[in-house]
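Q: What would this chain look like folded?
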Amino acid sequence: MEAAIQADHVTFRYLEGGQAILEDVSLTIPAGKITVLMGSSGCGKSTLASVLCGLFPENGGSLDSGEITLFGDRLTDLSLQQRARTITMMFQNPDLQFCMKTLREELYFCLENLQVKPELMEKMSVKAVRLMETEDLLDRELFSLSGGEKQRAMLTCLHLLDARCIILDEAFANLDPSGVRDLLGLLEKMCQEGKTILAIDHMCDHWLEVAHRFVILGKGGKVLEEIEDPKKLPDYQELFAREGIAYPGIWQEKRSEQGEPEAALSLDNFSLKNGQDLLFQGSLDFPKGKISAILGRSGCGKTSFLMTILKQRAYEGSLFFCLDSEKKEVRKMKEKECFSFVSMAFQNPSNQFVTQNVLAEVEDGMEGISPEEDKKRALELLDSCQLRPYQNYSPYMLSQGQQRRLAVLSVLSAGQRLLLLDEPTYGQDYKSARALMDLIVEKVEKKGLTVLMTTHDRGLARAYGDKLYLVEDKTIREVADL
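A: My prediction, written as C-alpha cells:
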C-alpha cells in the first residue's frame, strides 16, 4: 500500500540543547485512509503534525535527525507550492491560521498563493462554501465568529486548497453534534475520492464508524500501538487507561444530586443579540454552589453569554448576580466589582495569560498570607493537573491541552465565587480532563464555588453537570437530559 507520509527516526526539539519533544519517531500513514492519532496531552501530537507538514523546523526548532517523505518525495525537496498541493493542516486554534478579515478574502488569498487565475477565484470559492455549507460566513469578520464557526471557515479553506493529504488537529473540539456528523460525512466522502486524512483527537467516539486505523502515541511521540481494525479497540482498553486516553463511553459516572439550591445568577426576560439578530432569550436561574452545563450548536451564543456575564456584551432584560441576600443587576455594576465576583477561563487560553512563567501565572491571582504560602499553594495546584514539571516554562511553550489546564488553574487560584468555563476539556486527554474536573468539583463542594460551563461533550455534561441547559431555537432552557 502506498504511503502518504513516511517519518523515519525523527528527533525534534524547540530549543537547542533543550528537551526533545519528538524522540526517534518512526511512523507510516497509508494513502487514501483515515488515520486517527491519539495520545496523552503533551506527548507531541501537534508538534509531530507540524513537523510532518513542514511548518517545523522551517519556522522554529531543530530537526536533529530523521527524514520525512510525502507520497515518495522528500519533504525538503518540495517547493512551497508543491507542498501546499500535497499536504495541509488545520490548527487546534484557527485564529492562528487566518490571514485576512473575512472568509471570502481568506479563500481568495489561498487561491492567490496557488497562482489561480483571478477570473476563476469566485467560481471556486462559491463551490467550496456551498459544499461546506458556509455561505452564511462569507462576509462576516472572522474574529466575530464562534469557535465552531471558525473551524468550519478554516475547513472550507482547506477543502479549497485541494491537497492530497489533510491533517486535522482536534477538528471536533468546538463543533456541536450535528456539525460533527456533517464534517465526518464530508471527510468520509473526501477519503473515498482519494484524499488521505490524518486526524489528531483525544476522543475516539466520533471516529468509530469512519476511521480505518488508530495510532497511539506515548511520551516523545513514540508509537505505542497501531490498531489496524477499529473493531478491535476493546482489546486495548488497558493501554487507553494506562495512557490516560478517553475510551468510548468513558464519562459514565454521574455526580449525586443534593437538594434544590438557591440561585447564584438569575435571568429575567433576558435576551442576547448579535447585531439585530436574536441569539437567544429566556428567564431562568443558575444554582449557587453547583456546576451548570450549557450546551447548544456552534454559533448559538454560548460564549457570548459568558462574555455578557463579564460585562463585555450588551443585553436586554435583566441579568442578576445573587450576592448573599441581595440581587445586583450586572449592567449597573462597575467592572472592578463584577470581576471581584466572577472569573473566566476562555476558549482560547493564550488570550488570558498575563505572565511569562507557568508558576507565576497561577500565583498572580492569589492573595495569600505570604509569597511563600502563595508559591506552596500554586505548586499544589500544578501538581493536581500534572503541570509542576513545567513550572519554569513560558505558558506559550505548553501544548494546547496544557495551556487550557493552566488557564483554569489560574482563575481557580483567584478565589472568585462564580467561575465561567468555555469548553474546559477541549484538547485534553481523559486523565487530565478528569483531574481538572475533579479539582473543580472539590472547589464546588468545599468552597461553595458556582460554575457555568459550556461544552459540546454530552458525556462530560452528564457526568459533572448538576443542572443541564440547552440553547436551542433561540431559547435557553433547563433540560432533564440530553
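Residues 185 and 210 are 9 Å apart (CA to CA).
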